[in-house]
Design brief:
The protein is mostly helical. The protein has 8 helices and no strands. It has a domain of 115 residues. The radius of gyration is 22 Å and the shape is flat.
């Protein structure tokens, strides 16, 4: 494995570094490497690629085993984070505009963090509710009886419901991970705001409204 490809060396961490250590290393380096603060775009992209791979359990395991980086997979991981950042950005700007306030007078980064935290909290609430529902569906399995030779459609329905909840829980878990990674991404940013005029954030409501399309 060449030094150019060694993702651990890029971030200055050991191979057995915990995710928390990797996050701290990326935050520290990103604060000076980010182009918005005079850093180099190529260097920042290399740091972000290392962060995206090492913070994804599957990508990291494959990298540790083979020493190879799958650029497409790493790009996909980074794209998911950026997509969540864009969601928070749109959520904040829409709310500021709806309140007739001036975006230049708000701490946009702080409001984006509030939006992401509200999304995580709402996702946790939905996940807890569906965990309970899954437990109830599971109790039904094996309890439906039908005449010999007839297909047990009610048993199939119960099993399909469990599979549907499992799929939803997996998606919620992925989206929560993306939201938390987006929060880490924002650590490299600050916002140069004008004299503040306070916007009352209602991201819990916005997040709930978005549940139908985003899953949260």
């Amino acid at each position: 494995m060449s030094q150019e490809q060694n993702l651990y060396q890029r971030l200055g961490v050991r191979r057995n570094a915990r995710p928390e250590t990797i996050k701290k290393a990326f935050r520290r380096l990103a604060k000076t490497a980010h182009p918005d603060v005079g850093g180099n775009r190529v260097e920042f992209d290399r740091l972000h690629q290392a962060y995206a791979v090492l913070m994804d359990a599957d990508l990291r395991a494959k990298y540790d085993l083979t020493g190879e980086i799958n650029p497409q997979a790493a790009d996909n991981a980074a794209a998911k984070i950026l997509s969540m950042v864009v969601w928070a950005f749109d959520c904040v700007v829409d709310q500021v505009v709806d309140q007739g306030a001036d975006v230049a007078k708000q701490d946009i980064i702080d409001l984006m963090r509030q939006a992401l935290n509200a999304k995580i909290k709402e996702g946790e609430k939905v996940r807890r509710a569906n965990d309970k529902k899954r437990g109830q569906y599971q109790k039904l399995v094996g309890r439906f009886k039908v005449r010999r030779g007839e297909p047990n459609r009610l048993q199939e329905i119960a099993q399909a419901k469990i599979a549907g909840v499992d799929e939803l829980l997996a998606r919620l878990s992925r989206e929560e991970t993306d939201a938390r990674n987006a929060l880490e991404f924002l650590d490299a940013y600050s916002f140069d705001q004008d004299v503040m005029s306070r916007v009352v954030a209602h991201f819990g409501t916005s997040t709930s409204t978005a549940t139908a399309s985003t899953g949260f």
